[in-house]
Amino acid sequence: MSSTIRKLKPVVEVQAKSMVAIDDVTMAFGTFVAVQDVNLKVGDGEFLSIVGPTGCGKSTILNAIAGLLKPAKGAVSIDGAAVNGVQNNIGYLFQQDALLPWKTAYQNVELGLMFRGMPEAERRVKVLAWLEKVGLKGFEARFPHQLSGGQRKRVQMAQALITEPKVILMDEPFSALDIHTRHLMQNELLRLWQEDRRAVVMITHDLEEAIALGDRVVVLAAGPKSRVIESFPVDLERPRNVAEIKLDPKFITLYRDIWASLRGEVEKSYARH
Amino acid sequence: MHAINIRLIQVALLVVILGGWQLGVSTGVIDRFFFPAPFDIVKQVVTWIADAGFYKHVGITLSETVLGYLIGTGLGVAAGVWLGLSPFVARVLDPFIKAVNAIPRVVLAPIFVLWLGLGLWSKVALAVTLVFFVTFFNAMQGVKEVNPVVLSNARILGAKRAHLLRHVYFPAAASWILSSLRTSVGFAVVGAIIGEYLGASAGLGYLIARSEGNFDAVGVFAGIIILAIFVLVIDLILDFVEKKLITWRPNAGEERPA
């Protein structure tokens, strides 16, 4: 392993085929340009973290991949197929509560399979298995308001992953949780992801989270007209423990390097808002 | 202790009012033609309740109320969800809806009698026009205020339009309709009673109208009391229904459904 982390080649990009390709994408709302000329490739099984100051249009990139928003320019493709309209082969972990409040944990996790027309008996086996996997055995009949914030996140994870999506998108998924629950959920997420590696695009403003979870960290410039300014491979060994990895000297070096790049953008962003 | 005190004061207040009224009538201070003695009113209520024929009237008013509520809610939900999902149609129809909603419903009663006769259905129609707009506006609001994140999530999970209607839009609208259950049932009762009052051959409203026609103030007051009891009983049933139906919400009214 090389000690000069920044010079390291992005290994994953070269080896694996790219699962998500963002080509020259510009996202705009009327005359407001959120992101401009973004090029990103995410390899199959690669965990990509995107960091940037608040209001830099990070979420619009995810929404472009999900097909919820249409790029003003450029194209997005998943596994070689162009994204056109809402995608069903992805899993999206939202920052906010996205569960249906009138359905129980079981019914919420079941949704994706039900919409795909899977027979009841088959669904039941999978839903129960997933609820157990995320540690919610015995909570099947609870409504979202009867679950804690962390438990609701677990339900959301099971809901998003049960359809075995090709790409998992995460929009500051744990930012609403307290720090201990957050560490717990991050480890949980890494465990699930390690079992069955999919391409992940995670957006966060928390640089520690970005490094601790990701294979690669991409830094976005301050908005508007945000773009990718730098890309850092993260060569920390897996499996990782999110709480402990922060003491690793390699982690600290990486943090310093990426922060040097991010800091200027955060300052610019503060000056504008 | 505190609760008992309040109860005692309430009972005392009731005794003073009714006793004073009764006393006023007996001593001739109050004209019994306009304000019949409470004792006579109670006697009339008891006579009615003991009479088997009376329940025919209750039954008719009840069926008008229930039919008016169900039909009005059904139409209101359908129209509300439809317009909530098609802003274009909503904008086109907006002035017409406002105009129709501005008509005082009572003036429609004679028209309904003309169209549907003196029987049950003219009262149901009046109740429907009252209930419809309450549920219509609530259903439309419910659909418009569906959390966009929840909606995006459902679409990404693979929901087609029919799925969205069944699992997202209708439950969202339903929770709003349940929260307006009391108002709309109240309107259904009002519609049924007014319809009967203006022209009918049976029902609680008819009882009041008939007593009035005979200058029988005792009958009018007794009818009012019966109506109050009728609405209170319906309220109790609604309390029960609400608790059964909204199990997924922490407390009705405390948190807006997403």
Automatic annotation (TrEMBL), chain A:
MF (Gene Ontology): ATP binding; ATP hydrolysis activity; glycosyltransferase activity
One Pfam short name: ABC_tran
InterPro entries in alphabetical order: AAA+_ATPase, ABC_transporter-like_ATP-bd, ABC_transporter-like_CS, ABC_transporter_ATP-bind, P-loop_NTPase
Residues of the ABC transporter domain: 20-247
Keywords tagged on the record: ATP-binding, Glycosyltransferase, Nucleotide-binding, Transferase, Transport
Similarity comment: family membership: Belongs to the ABC transporter superfamily.
The protein's name: Mannosyltransferase
Organism of this sequence: Phyllobacterium phragmitis
UniProtKB/TrEMBL annotation, chain B:
Subcellular location: Cell membrane
UniProt keyword terms in alphabetical order: Cell membrane, Membrane, Transmembrane, Transmembrane helix, Transport
Pfam entry (one): BPD_transp_1
Residues annotated as domain ABC transmembrane type-1: 58-242
Membrane topology according to the record: Multi-pass membrane protein
Gene3D superfamilies reported in the protein's UniProt record: MetI-like
Gene Ontology terms: cellular component: plasma membrane
Alphabetical list of InterPro entries matching this protein: MetI-like, MetI-like_sf
Signal peptide span: none
Coiled-coil stretches noted in the UniProt entry, renumbered to this chain: none
GO annotation terms (biological process): transmembrane transport
Annotated TM spans: 66-90, 187-208, 215-238
Family classification: Belongs to the binding-protein-dependent transport system permease family.
Protein's recorded name: ABC transporter permease
Species of the source: Phyllobacterium phragmitis
